[in-house]
Design goal:
Length: 189
């Protein structure tokens, strides 16, 4: 299960290596009203918002309510754009690997974990290139396994700081990779 957009690229490679099916769990952060890049909350398609409670207590509740509704609509549009309509695939009794390109606050990953847990998998593995040490501890308490290339105790503050080239993954790339997977019978072979 990739978190689009950035998570789709490493997820395709993991799915190929494991000869496993690939799907998406769509999450989206809610940025602070004064700095949209600073995540104060995140939501998934069906889950409850996962928030930094201190930051949420400092914003206007009406603004937050409106923002949650707007972001849920954006998630729905993204699902439609990616042609993921219809029933979600069953995850019951399966091992699910949730993949992203890195973690900063961890809110979108926490939202993804909540959604995946509600679908009753056998176990959940989070696979990521980089994660702050304190966030890694939180994740390890929630999932069966955390696989990370770098658990950084002195986190550099942004996922992009760990990449030589951290270009944004465009929706067109996500759609192309999903089409490639579909051509291969649902797995990323």
């Amino acid at each position: 299960m990739a978190l689009p957009r950035g998570g789709i690229v490493p997820a395709v490679e993991i799915a190929k290596a494991l000869e496993a099916p690939l799907d998406l769990v769509i999450t989206k952060k809610i940025g602070h009203p004064n700095n949209d890049e600073y995540a104060i909350c995140a939501i998934s398609e069906d889950g409850e918002p996962v928030c930094n409670e201190i930051e949420i207590s400092r914003v206007d509740p009406k603004w937050f309510e409106n923002k949650v509704e707007k972001v849920r609509n954006e998630i729905k549009k993204r699902r439609e754009m990616y042609h993921l309509g219809g029933a979600k695939k069953s995850l019951e009794g399966k091992t699910v690997i949730i993949v992203d390109d890195g973690i900063a606050t961890g809110l979108t990953m926490l939202a993804a974990i909540g959604e995946i847990k509600s679908r009753n998998p056998k176990e959940i593995v989070v696979a990521i290139p980089v994660v702050p040490g304190d966030t890694a501890k939180k994740l390890q308490a929630l999932v069966d396994e955390l696989v990370a290339l770098d658990i950084d105790q002195s986190y550099l503050g942004a996922v992009g700081a760990y990449y030589d080239n951290f270009l944004q993954v465009e929706d067109s790339v996500v759609m192309a990779l999903l089409k490639e997977v579909a051509r291969n019978g649902g797995s990323a072979e």
